[in-house]
Please model this.
Amino acid sequence: MAHSSTLPTIDLSAFLKQEDDEDGWKKAMKDIHEACSEYGFFLAVNHGVPLQLMSQALQVSKSFFDLPDEDKLDYSLKPAAATPPIDGSSTHSGSRTGIIIESPQGDKFEYALRLALGASNNKAEYVALLVEAKLALAYNDSQLVVNQVLEEMYPYFTKLGSLVENIINDCLGLPPDFLKEYNDDRSLDFIIALHYFPATETDNVGKACHSDGNSITFVFSDGVEGLQVYKDGEWISICPPEGTLVVNIGDIIQVLSNDKLKSAAHRVVRQLGKSRYSYAFLYTIPGDKLVEPLPHFTVNKGDSPKYKGFLYKEYVQLRVRNVTRPQDRVGIAHYEISKS
Ligand SMILES: O=C(O)CCC(=O)C(=O)O
Model:
């Protein structure tokens, strides 16, 4: 049983307009700090991503996902295409691509990745919707309409990621631009278009309960409910109005802040008789960054670190392995330092 949304809605316009709006700015900072400590989630309006582009993106992904499977498979990477590995360290070729129908954890959705991930298995396939010249991915020309929309949208999300990261930097009282300097490479960010199939009488799992392994995530959807956030033993249903973004803190910020900010568990529940379409933009950090509680929240305050340090790419690899080894599922608790 889930309760309906009580997530705070935060107006980001004070951060985006030219003229000074100190009151608006202070209020938004305070609200974001509270929301990220309490829920790990907030809703954002006046966020700078054009609403018309968001709505167009949903239309094109719906048209894409409505195609028959055989046609969608034509959109997959050509076999010889080089597929970037998840840690961005080098390229390798020959990964299978296609469309996810069902993963071993019971997730049932289709997704299309801006970057093709270098991991797959017999049950998990995916399609690369976007291409960056530097990744040298081959793709089918007829995908261009989807690509164009995503490519147009992408820089807005990169900018927003940097803005929200900066707000979080200041909420946490870190030195100016600390997180910006730490997170200085955008090559692992990606955008995914998702399609959740209607639920059946016996199965409504869309995306199983998880927290996000990255830094900050932005989601928007077509108004069909399904996203739920776990808080204080209850699931809260999030169904924001059109044009509103769901913003959530990922595991990296939770670890860096030594749990000052929260990477909340969430899931997607499929609805009877209804498909659901959404997009998620994942703002990440470079693969070779050491992730550990910052001294500002440990030694400088006399607090113990709650996590062991790790490289981001190692964590991502463990999470990718979750797909093939769900029995050994790894989340951020893997790095927790036990209290005893
Ligand atoms: O589709 C959604 O609303 C959320 C997707 C999600 O939870 C994720 O990508 O981590």
